[in-house]
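From the pipeline queue, job 12 of 40. The input is one protein chain; the requested action is below.

Action: predict structure.
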Amino acid sequence: MSRIGKLPVDLPKGVTVKVGSDNVVVVKGPLGELKQAVNPDITVAVEGEQVNVSRPTDQPRHRSMHGLYRALIQNMVVGVSTGYTIQQELVGVGYKVEAKGQTLEFSLGYWVPDIR
């Protein structure tokens, strides 16, 4: 079994998952709605507050799709429930970084800001 694929996807409050007859997974939440077509060989089942993904055989093609679709569904659930955030950490010496609104200002090497 795939280590990623065998893990169930937990659904937070306010998030619903529906699997259509054509194997399209629809995830709805407070931040919107996302859709993903899933290969017909892969089975997606919604059981209570969890989504389980399973595969029919142990072929390499099925194993790779198993983990892929589980990860895509997990990312969809995160996207419609909490959204995505980017947190970056710069580690080192010899430079300084400042966040000014939506931009980053890097002070590298012997650079001196233009003073006017």
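Job complete. The mean pLDDT is 90.
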